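Practice record 12: protein with 6-diazenyl-5-OXO-L-norleucine.
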Amino acid sequence: MQMGWKVFIIFLIVSSCAKDNHSNNAVVVTRHHLATDVGANILREGGNAVDSAVAVAFALAVVNPSAGNLGGGGFMLYYDAKKNKTFALDYRERAPQAATEKMFLDKDGEVIKNLSLNSYLAAGVPGTVKGMFKIHDLFGSKSMNDLISPAIKIAKKGFELSAFQAENFNKYEKKFSNGSDSESIFINAERDFEEGDVFIQTDLGETLDLIKKQGQEVFYNGIIAEKIVADFSNNGGLITIEDLKDYRVFLKDPICGDYKEYEVCSMPSPSSGGVAIIQMLNIIENFDLSEYSHNSIEYIKLLAKVMSFAYADRSKYLGDQNFFNSPIEKLTSKNYANIISKKIKSGEKVSVEPGIYFYEGDQTTHFSVIDFDGNVVSNTYTLNTAYGSGIVAKGTGILMNNEMDDFSIKPGTPNFWGLVGSKANSIEPNKRPLSSMTPTIIMYDGAPIMTIGSPGGSKIITTVLQCILNVFIHDMNIKQAVCAPRIHHQWLPENTVYIEPNGISKDIIKNLQSRGHTIKTYGYMGVANGIIIEDDGLYGGTDCRDETSAIGY
Ligand code: DON
């Protein structure tokens, strides 16, 4: 998040009328201009949105190594125009079969610092390669060869580092000093990396070449699998050939809810994003937001309260539904939202506890594509924290995730993102850690009108929520919507409202403090991007917080 606050404010003024990219045909928005080029070229050459998305996912693994990946996982929402149906692809990492509930605790039951983040034990079984093959098998039209080749070319020939990327590699030098291949790839032995350095990834290029020639099998049950497993077993990791062979991708129905006249579809379990977005929109629907101007004190207070309820429930009730029966219907019901709304409206000091109001009882990356035929992809994938575990499996060029930290490694103990969890999200073999990734597609009258998503750890869900409200309540265009300053509340720490540097006026900060809120400036929240479909065409909007790019034509 390299943008200074002055630039940020100037941008907000300038962007008040700017729309990022307009097109009558197709739009691609991603975190990196080279990946956007790759996705746009595939569309120009006759590929569809899925072809473009798959090519982008492979390209980002090369040009955006902090988040783009082969060694991680994620979620894709895909709206198929012909079928008039939205699908949710779950290619989230899962715990190895040898994983145990207390694997990150010492003999006294205390969390062993950093074990779930920076070690061979931190990695879940990666899903990205299988995910991309699955969606391509079902909906792609071009050959996989065409979709992987651009990534191979960039990996082998190299690409110029931006100032941000060069600084970022230098910043994470300690993380890369772990004895794995990441030392020779991400640390420059002679001097710091600088803007314009050409970054070549020979091993990753070879790995991609093998995947292109031999298909996904080579990753899950071939030479690449063998290399990953050899490195893991030599270094105390758990991932075995069986783990890789047995890894499954799921094609699911998305979770959808109504907000006013719109249908909001997002990612179901093992993401918490869809449930939380629907729960929050349901509550907000009970308030007349035309009375609240954007980021006014009343608006922020309301959002903070609503967010707090959703995150409290997330902590107690949500986990991989194949292992834990979450009360999804209740959490996303209008009834439940009414009860919470009444509590908020009563004005009394509401203490938020998960579920007591029931009637009865710098890292991840998001990209969006819309093609000529109106097919829509909304995809978020990740290694978890920047560069995941920081470990490159020997001889593969593949950075491995540290997604095991997204489990509740000890009930009540916050993970990297400050999120606490319960039994619902405890570690079990083959279980998927609860995620906040929220790729979302919004429909009106049965057809998509917007796609949106973001990285940001725990702040993903609240970022996506505010982008949606910015468009549908505050009448912002997509560029303004993703760039506007955001706030965040995640239940714990209690009464703590996170704001962005200079995002909220001093008066409002004082006002919130006088009402008992602690205000924390965390840095920028999320790097959202999205596309809106209007009567006169498609508008792609990318976040001004980071290096993002949109191409429409
Ligand atoms: O799945 C999740 O919720 C996290 N692993 C996402 C991490 C993330 O967004 C990192 N980006 N800032």
